Amino acid sequence: MKILHRVAVVAVACLAGMSVASAQCEKPPKPVADYLKAHPGWRILTVGDLSKDQQMEWNESHKAFCPGLAEAVLDATGEKSYALALVDKPARQEEALILHGATPVMIYPASPSVGIVTYRMPPGQYDEGGRKIAIAHDSVMYEFFESAAQQFYFVNGKLRKLQAGD
User: Fold this and answer.
1) What are the two backbone dihedrals, phi and then psi, of residue 14, each rounded to the nearest 5 degrees?
2) Interval 90-117: pLDDT, tens
3) What DSSP string describes the chain?
4) Hey, CA dihedral for 51, 56, 61, 65, is it positive or negative?
5) How many Cα atoms within 13 Å fall on the side-chain side of residue 145?
6) For the chain, percent of residues with pLDDT exceeding 70
7) Residue 138: Cβ within 10 Å count
């Protein structure tokens, strides 16, 4: 009976995580919804857009989150910013940008879809090829499955990036 109870608890937790991620993808915050409305054809990348292998990899690390939307506080203003991985399915295009204040900052312009995802990283010390970098606020990671990852953060109002993996 205890085993059945544990299985049920795990199943409910998994479903709850999936519904949170789906809700994040399908009902984005107002600034993101406004951006998408102004750019018809583009939508937030969802777990369903990923290949089966990519879905498994995403779910191992970030199951409760939407792979196309990360909310972060990137500077001392305390305002929320949004990292987006967007898809245009008919054209098989993907692009990535950060909505920071009133200005969208293009990270990767529209190009053939490769499976890029985004997620928030907390403030802290990060390593780039042996060089330590202190990031005072949240940052966002853009990861290309089975390829590279780049971390974006702000310093004195300027966007910086570090190569997080290849």
Assistant:
1) -65, -45
2) 878 999 999 998 789 999 999 987 789 9
3) -HHHHHHHHHHHHHHHHHHHHHHHHHS--HHHHHHHHHSTT-EE--GGGS-HHHHHHHHHHHTTS-TTEEEE--STT---EEEEEEEETTTTEEEEEEEETTEEEEEEEEEE---EEEEEE-SEEEEETTEEEEE-S-EEEEEETTS-EEEEEEETTEEEEEEEE-
4) positive
5) 19
6) 84
7) 21
